[in-house]
Amino acid sequence: MANQLLKGKKGIIFGALDEKSIAWITAIRCFDEGAQLVLTNAPVALRMGEINKLAEQVQAPVIPCDVSNNEDVDKLIDQAMAHFGGGFDFILHSIGMSLNVRKGKHYTEIDYGFNAKTLDISSMSLHRVLASCMKKDAINDWGSVVALTYIAAQRVFPDYNEMADAKSLLESVARSFGYHYGVKKHVRVNTISQSPTRTTAGSGVKGFDGFISYAEKMSPLGNASAADCANYCVAMFSDLTRMVTMQNLFHDGGFSFTGVTQAVIEQMEK
C-alpha cells in the first residue's frame, strides 16, 4: 500500500539490473510512494540488464555511469540535477563487483590488481559519489543516502571472499562521510545489512543455496526479502528517519543477533 511517503522527493537509484535486484524493486516502491527518479548503472550492466523496462515503468531517464571514473560520476550528478531542475533528496547505492569471485580465486590467493578494482567499484564508489554531490551541492538538506551491505563485513563467511573486505570498507566510508555530510548539510548516510537475497549477483556466490537455507533457519523472523528491503529503503529515504545517520542497520530477520536457533540444533542432531 502506497502512502506517498516520498511525495515531492527526488532520487538516484544505482544498480538496478533486472527484476530480481533490490535496486529494481526499490525504484518501483519509491515511485509508488511519489518520488521522481533517475536510474543509473555501469554501461556493461545496461547492456546485460533490462533497465529500460524499469525506466518506462517508473518514468525515469537512464544515465550510464562507471562509478570508478571521476568524470563519469560528475557527469551523472550534473545530468541528474539538470533533469530534476536542481538538487535531489536521496541515493540508493546498490553496487558490488568482485573480479576474484568471478575468476574463482580463493581468498588466500587473490589477485591484488583485481582486489583493487573490487574495492574501487564496490566501496570507494560511495565516496566518489558523495564527494561529487558535496562539491556540486547536489543533495538537499536532510537528504538520505543508503548503501547495501552484508554481515560478512563483521563475520567470516568463507565463500564471500574479498567482498567481505569491500563491504567493511563501504560501511566505514558511510560512517566517515556521514559525519562530514551531516555537519555540512544534515544529509544522513547509512548502510543496510540485508539478508542473503536471491538476486542475480547474490546467486553467483559459491554455496549460495546452502547459505540462504542456513540463514533462514538462523533467523527468528526468517530471511528478509528484496521487497522487504525496498520497504526499509523507502522508510530511510522518508522524513520519518531524519535523525538516523552513520548506522549499519541490520535487516535480516534477527540473524545478526541470534547465537543459535532450535531449528539449527535439530538439524545438527540429525
Structural summary, described in words:
With 270 residues, this protein is α/β, with parallel strands linked by helices. It has a single domain (10-269), classed as Rossmann fold (3-Layer(aba) Sandwich), CATH 3.40.50.720. It is 46% helix and 16% strand. The protein has a seven-stranded parallel β-sheet, with helices on both faces. Helix 1 crosses helix 9. The protein is globular, with a radius of gyration of 18 Å. The termini are far apart. The model has no long low-confidence stretch (mean pLDDT 94).
Nutshell version of this structure?
The protein has helices spanning 22-32, 43-48, 51-58, 70-84, 99-102, 112-136, 163-185, 208-218, 226-237, 262-269, and strands at 10-14, 36-41, 62-64, 88-93, 139-149, 188-194, 248-251. With 270 residues, it is α/β, with parallel strands linked by helices.
Total strands: the figure is 7
Average residue-wise pLDDT: 94
Low-confidence stretches: none
- Span of the ends, CA to CA: 43 Å
Biggest sheet overview? 7 strands, parallel
Strand arrangement in the largest pleated sheet: 3-2-1-4-5-6-7
Count of helix runs: 10
Strand % is 15-25%
Write down the secondary-structure element order.
Answer: EHEHHEHEHHEHEHHEH
Summing up helix and strand content along with how strands pair, one would put the structural category as alpha/beta
Number of domain units: 1
CATH class: Alpha Beta
CATH architecture name? 3-Layer(aba) Sandwich
As a whole number of angstroms, the C-alpha radius of gyration is: 18 Å
